[in-house]
Design brief:
The protein is built from 3 helices and 6 strands. Helices cover about 30% and strands about 35% of the residues. Helix 1 (about 5-10) packs across helix 3 (about 40-50). With about 100 residues, it is an alpha+beta fold.
């Protein structure tokens, strides 16, 4: 996979309370990914970018939401989320040194 496509597939890590619980309990990391990315591309991108072994990938589409702002109707855009299961002993820490 080309380096350009890796950065297109992986948009950003999704850091939330649920994702931090998943990382501790099931050794999973959560990413926001491109809508056209498939599981094989996501696994290859994570493995090459972070030098870890990927065991499995689960994806889901987060649906868009209808919102109102100052009486005007609008829509938040939907996005795709990927739960990446890492091999035993591998770890990706996005908040390394954040509390210091």
């Amino acid at each position: 996979m080309k380096q350009e496509r890796i950065f297109q597939v992986l948009r950003s890590p999704h850091v939330s309370e649920k994702s931090s619980v998943q990382s501790e309990a099931a050794n999973q990391v959560v990413f926001e990914v491109a809508k056209d990315a498939n599981k094989h591309e996501i696994a290859e991108a994570v493995a090459s970018l972070f030098d870890v072994k990927v065991v499995g990938v689960t994806t889901l589409n987060v649906k868009s939401k209808q919102k109102r702002f100052r009486g005007q109707a609008g829509t938040r855009s939907g996005w795709k989320k990927a739960y990446v299961t890492l091999a035993e002993g591998d770890e990706i820490d996005f908040l390394d040194g954040a509390g210091q």
